[in-house]
Amino acid sequence: MGEWSGKITVKILKVEPRSRLSLQKHRHRREEWLCLSGSADVQVGRKSFRMKVGDWVRVQRNELHRIYSEGGAEILEVSVGKYSETDIVRIEDDYGRADKKAGSAKSA
């Protein structure tokens, strides 16, 4: 079991054109993303790159990440580990949901 122990949750992220997800990390889970349609500019840790259909990336636990799409995209997300929406630490968010203690969360 090892690395794959824990709960597995699968969902599709629909990123609207000219929209982005929060700059965030997760305390208790990692994620794997597969681009199903469109393309997206992705930040994972200190790396930034473009995902196109068929590309996939792994986001480790506690690693900062964000998705932006100019033209819209659908991303298959597989979360592995203890899943809960309270697991999200938002550092920056376009919708006012960033954690009040985000500055200290960066170093956590």
Topology readout:
Blueprint: E1 8-15, E2 19-20, E3 23-26, E4 29-44, E5 47-52, E6 56-59, E7 65-69, E8 73-81, E9 88-92, H1 102-106
Antiparallel strand pairs: 1-8, 2-7, 3-9, 4-5, 4-6, 4-7, 4-8
Could you describe the 3D structure shown?
This protein is mostly beta strands and 108 residues long. The chain has a single domain (2-103), classed as Sandwich (Jelly Rolls), CATH 2.60.120.10. The protein has one helix and nine strands; from the N terminus they run E-E-E-E-E-E-E-E-E-H. The chain has one helix at residues 102-106; strands at 8-15, 19-20, 23-26, 29-44, 47-52, 56-59, 65-69, 73-81, 88-92. The strands form two sheets. Strands 1, 2, 4, 5, 6, 7 and 8 form a seven-stranded antiparallel beta sheet that branches. A two-stranded antiparallel sheet has the order 3-9. The chain is globular. The two termini are 27 Å apart. The relative contact order is 0.32.
